[in-house]
Design brief:
The complex is a heterodimer of chains A (about 160) and B (about 190).
Chain A: H1 3-29, E1 40-51, E2 54-55, H2 63-72, H3 74-78, E3 81-84, E4 87-91, E5 94-103, E6 106-118, E7 121-131, E8 152-157
Chain B: E1 7-8, E2 40-41, E3 58-59, H1 69-89, H2 93-99, E4 100-110, E5 113-117, H3 119-132, E6 140-151, E7 154-163, E8 166-178, E9 181-191
Parallel strand pairs in B: 4-9
Antiparallel strand pairs in B: 1-6, 2-6, 4-5, 6-7, 7-8, 8-9
Helix pairs in contact in B: 1-2
Classes of the chains: A alpha+beta (about 160), B alpha+beta (about 190).
């Protein structure tokens, strides 16, 4: 295998570890925005499309409600959640990855995450997402619907 | 299929400070794995041919179906008009506004920090670059869009920029589909030289 290919594969593996071990845990598993991993750059923002103040942002954003959910509806939290990583694309010090989130084998979110290599470490710097289907329990907007097409963009800092 | 363009313009970023530069261009191991990706090129009038460029994106998961060709075409047109023409060719604010969301930010690495650049600052940066180095803008620019991946109302693209046959930048741009169409909302990049 040529050296360039080996280096690229090596970087893809490093990025995959960040997405699998850090991004998924911090974005979807943690019950708090605090104590973020260092792989999240301080500049990281989740970009949230909005329509009249409503959005289809990931459930993990609703921290206040999450505690109540964990206490009163544990099955909702313990339900099977599966993550897939369809592709990672890296060129030099920049990269993007896609993360698909399934709940009970139903697609819930597709995330596109961008990363920079800073000081030799891959850092998560930006994210957009698509929420699948219409699940009123986790979101209020169906961005695939013409009537619900977002009009605004909110930069949601993380941490 | 690889058509291309040559523009009497150039691209350069004052704020681009990158560390070790690597060009990972494995050009043959990926073709077979990229049937889901769109490989597009610019079609701006007066264009010449772009030197053939092979995508090197890698997909490690399952191939998905259902990406709309029309959506990808819409995205390609947005990038061509707002980014290639608006930013790099004409520094035209109207063209930029047509495809960049007002809250767009280009994330630029500066040493260990990230600096955010909004659309109009991006335009101004390119204008200043043209004023200080007009000769640079005389060289022809070509571009290629080897990756467009769409899921619902979100998308990611990779754009390769060359000038005078020299590979300058790889861009990754994130987009959302808003009420008035696809808009570029975020960009990172790698400078090749």
């Amino acid at each position: 295998m040529p050296l360039e290919e080996r280096l690229r594969v090596q970087e893809e593996r490093r990025i995959r570890r960040v997405l699998e071990d850090v991004y998924v845990r911090d974005m979807y598993m943690k019950g708090s925005r605090n104590a973020l991993s260092q792989e999240f750059d301080t500049a990281f923002h989740m970009l949230v499309p909005e329509l009249d103040g409503r959005s289809g942002e990931p459930i993990a954003l609703h921290w206040d409600g999450l505690t109540e959910l964990q206490e009163n509806h544990p099955k909702a939290i313990l339900a099977e959640v599966r993550f897939e990583f369809p592709f990672i694309d890296v060129v030099g010090d920049a990269a993007v990855g896609r993360v698909d989130v399934y709940q009970e084998n139903v697609p819930v979110y597709s995330d596109y995450v961008s990363l920079y290599r800073i000081g030799g470490q891959w850092k998560l710097v930006s994210k957009v997402f698509h929420r699948h289907g219409t699940r009123p329990d986790i979101a209020q907007v169906d961005p695939t619907s013409e009537k619900d097409r977002p009009t605004r963009l909110r930069h949601e800092p993380w941490g | 299929m690889s058509h291309g363009v040559e523009h009497p313009l150039s691209v350069s970023y004052h704020l681009c400070v990158l560390g070790d530069l690597e060009s990972h261009t494995d050009e043959d191991s990926l073709q077979s794995r990229l049937s889901f990706l769109v490989r597009l090129s610019g079609t701006i009038p007066g264009a010449g041919l772009l030197a053939d460029w092979a995508p090197r994106a890698t997909r490690t998961g399952k191939e998905r179906e259902g990406h709309s060709v029309s959506e990808r075409e819409d995205i390609r047109r947005v990038i061509e008009r707002a980014y290639i023409e608006g930013i790099h060719q004409d520094q035209d604010e109207a063209k930029v506004r047509s495809g960049f969301h007002p809250d767009f930010r280009m994330l630029v690495r500066q040493d260990m920090e990230i600096v955010e650049v909004d659309p109009m600052a991006f335009v101004q940066m390119m204008r200043e670059r043209r004023e200080t180095n007009p000769g640079f803008f005389e060289s022809a620019l070509s571009f290629d869009i080897p990756l467009i991946d769409v899921e619902g109302s979100a998308a990611v693209t990779r754009i390769e920029l060359r000038r005078g046959g020299r590979h300058l930048f790889t861009d990754y741009q994130l987009l959302y589909k808003f009420e008035d169409g696809w808009k570029i909302v975020s960009k990172i990049f790698h400078a090749h030289s």
